[in-house]
Amino acid sequence: MSIETRAWVWLAVAGVLEVIWAIGLKQSDGFRRPGVAAFTVVAMIASFYGLAQALKVLPVGTGYAVWTGIGAVGTAIVGVVYFGESRDFGRVLSILLIVSGIVGLKLASRA
What we know:
Elements: H1 3-27, H2 34-54, H3 60-83, H4 89-108
Helix pairs in contact: 1-2, 1-3, 3-4
């Protein structure tokens, strides 16, 4: 696996961990559930570590934007599927626009 591919894998894993910790924030009830709160903090640290590894190779603007995009889209999808959040057209369109931005950044990236 090339160093570039490894960087993108790190970034994808970090993005998924961002979704996990974002959902953990909700589930921790404002950090009033210690076990969930501890899991959330571990996921946060792991997510930042993965982002840091990816940014050794990837441009910071691309890496950070893709990381936050994965987190935003993933968290929004989990919200719709598991928490019954809105599925209206504007929300779905906005999620698709974020995904298209993530894909565009990946395609335009030299690293």
